[in-house]
Amino acid sequence: MTDTTPSDVAIRQEPRFARLRQLLRDPLGCFGLVLVLLIILSAIGADIIAPHDYKALDVKSRLASPSWDHLLGTDNLGRDTFSRILHGGQIALYVALVSVGSSLLLGLVLGMLAGYGPSWLDNVLMWFFDSVRAFPVIMFALAVITVVGPSLETIIFVVIATTTPGYARIARASTLATKNTEFILAERALGAGVPRIMFSHLVPNIVQPLLILASMDIPVVITIEAGLSFLGLGVKPPTPSWGSILNDGYGFIRNTPWLVVAGGIPLIITTLGFTFLGEALRDVLDPKLKKDR
Amino acid sequence: MNDRDNTVLAVRDLSVDFLTGRGTVRALRHVDLTVPDNRVVGIVGESGCGKSTLINCVLRLLAANAVVADSSSVVFKGRDVLAMSPADLRGIRGKEISMVFQDPMTALNPVISIGTQMTDILYRLDMSMADKRRLATDMLGQVGIPDPARRLADYPHQFSGGMRQRICIAMALMMNPGLLIADEPTTALDVTLEAQIIHLMKDLCARFGCSMLFVSHNLGLIAELCDEVVVMYAGEVVEQGEVHDLFHRAQHPYTRMLLDCDPARIEEKRRDLPTISGSVPDLIDLPRGCIFAPRCPQRYAPCSDTAPATYDVNAVHQARCFKVRDA
Amino acid sequence: MPELLNVEGLRVRFRTAGLVKSLVKSLTDPHIDAVMQVSFTLNEGETYGLVGESGSGKTTLGRAIIGLVEMAEGSITFDGTELRGLDDARLRVIRRNVAMMFQDPVASLSPRKTVRNLITEPFRIHRIPGSESSRDARRLLNLVGLHEGFLGAYPHQLSGGQARRVGVARALALEPRLIIADEPTAGLDVSVQGEILNLMNRLQRELGLSYLIITHNLPVVRHVSDRLAIMYLGRFVETGDTDGIFASPAHPYTLGLLAAVPEPDPDKRREKLELEGEIPSLMNRPQGCEFHTRCPFVREKCLSEAPVLRTVAPGRMASCHFPFPNPAEAGTSGPGG
Description:
The structure holds 3 protein chains of 3 kinds. Chain A is an all-alpha fold. Chain A has helices at residues 18-25, 27-44, 46-49, 81-116, 119-134, 137-148, 152-178, 182-189, 194-230, 242-251, 258-285. Chain C has a domain at 3-225: 3-Layer(aba) Sandwich (Rossmann fold), CATH 3.40.50.300.
């Protein structure tokens, strides 16, 4: 009859790291995670792992085939391809992480502002995003590079400008769905201000789909960087990039196939790794999207 | 408890387990239930008592991780639902057993007109479209939708919540089913509409000669509508019987306490309301004896060790409690 | 008892269509009145019940008092201070004295916060200095009868009753004087309902709280409230002390509501229903008495002339041209309870 019935029923516990375990149970997700870790570790440790200086010329052994000294052979200037691939990975990941990270943050904030703010702001932001999205990515990139010249920063700018609207749209849709829920109302009734509601209560509830999208976007950005470098519009030599290695290999394909193979394999590994990881993440974080298997 | 001649549905010794990552959830244990012809049977119980699992089992709509014990049987008009082929099942669902759900908003397809939805479920009938629409119009009229012929072209969002639930009832009864299962059909509705819908369901079931299995946590609705009542607690039927007998001479301590808790049954105004202390046991790790013993104020020697069987209070009233045996 | 909250002639309007849409559809007034001409007083230590069906404006009224929706007309006075026209900073200070409990016990808790975070958040929002949050969290949990093991739990790990207790703890954090409880027993089992209501009752006695309880659950409100207001289409149709209203309702709508509650006794089945039809749309309010479309006792005067809320008996107000004077005439079936 008292109201202080101790509700000492066990709290429904979840095992620790339940999500991670679930991810590791999915063989493709596990495989993706291994590939991604491989790429990241090799890029971070490039200076230690690389057997040669990636700039050192060795004119005597130009376009050599793989050997114990040169694991993936050498290029037309006699530089060690394996070392260049490792350092190219640094560039690729740098571009991908910086630009995808920035667009995620920017898109999250702008999307939340559009969704939570007044409707005129929503209209202005949406109009702006839609106009940006109307540009074809490559055309936009070529136009920008023509104006400001090729560089790493230009590529990053182009990627941020073209991918942010996608994140913003998702963030806006989730914000609209979340902002009228009872717990947001309850926070407002407690007197919480807009910044607290947005960053403390909205963000944790809308960020998951963005993270999934980001992990799927990383290989896309890496191929954009490689593509632009292939066209000679990306990073400037002698800085190695998977795209410029591919381009070199393309020029000397009659002399040796090894350059093309060496430039292509890391691209394939990265794309597969991040895509598998992204799909597994989606299944774990957002079970609603999961197909019946 | 009744002969099968006048029985629509007979559930015998039904036990259902769910295999989960935490262990085996013993959701239903040895449930017996009979729905006689032209009767309304109410299932009452609090959340987690297994009433949804029970009705899902009758329609065989259980989740993939459910395991039904071999000794169980669910016999509908002489045929065992649990042993049926998928094709036979489809012949029963919606035609012989139909259902009215809790939320009339989500039970109807929002982008298809009411008329089309109603004639679609008649696909099994060899009947002209004009006849089907006539039947649909007639059904809408019977459930109290004004101007039914014109409203066939309308979409669900053009109806109010109460009207939508009326449409769901019309659709459920259109195939003239032998059994209507209503799963808390009025929780989404206001009190005045709730009363209307309850009376409508009662009238229509009598008119169509259809039995009803009515699931609710609202004791008032059960008392108002049902002929027989089944009280469930933590996956077991703890008491069942004829409605007057059960409400006036409840034997199981859980039933009594549940009745005592209902503020509508407390005549004197009081600030301090009765409660049932403790909480529902974990269905993975069940107590050894009576399922209600840990919360029961009247438990005595046998309760904590042995699980009671079902004992007759009288010809129309049984309870799963040692007190009944020893009385 | 001193007066704590006074609401006078409150009106809340919502815009139903944008400028362009209302021009195209040539709507003269693209607004609906969710709450109209509502006046009442809540005294210190009192429990006041707002009863109505969906669309009656009871939730909107509660939200207007705590400032979640803006009022169009009228005044709200809390402890002698008029809230209308106050600047935000001063409003926040006053609003610390008013807390709200929302309908859905679990959904009204931010899903990715622990119980510890949830119940100490009011201190952070209002930057209460010197509050040692983990000690406060324990004290609040104790107050609502939950043990400390719940501090680290997330809302989805709680049962309805536990989540409701956390909601009460959160409401109590800033030591408010008034708690607005929107359907405090919604979604709870009968056996748990009592626990929550008893908890609220104990806290009222110990802390001297006042409650405004918004509900459609008549059996519950009968036991917990001192006075009642029955709402229909955004207006009060009857107000008075709870026992009196349950014993002899003056307004036909109140009678209909009471009669609609099924009695948990199979011997008292009803043959006939009092109220037919459904609540009209707020966009399309009936002429005359707004209840005449459903009133079983409608007369000619009701179709053309709108009744005003007036005193029909000591302490009792009703807006009906022909109120029931005493229980004997309050229909043959009599009110429930």
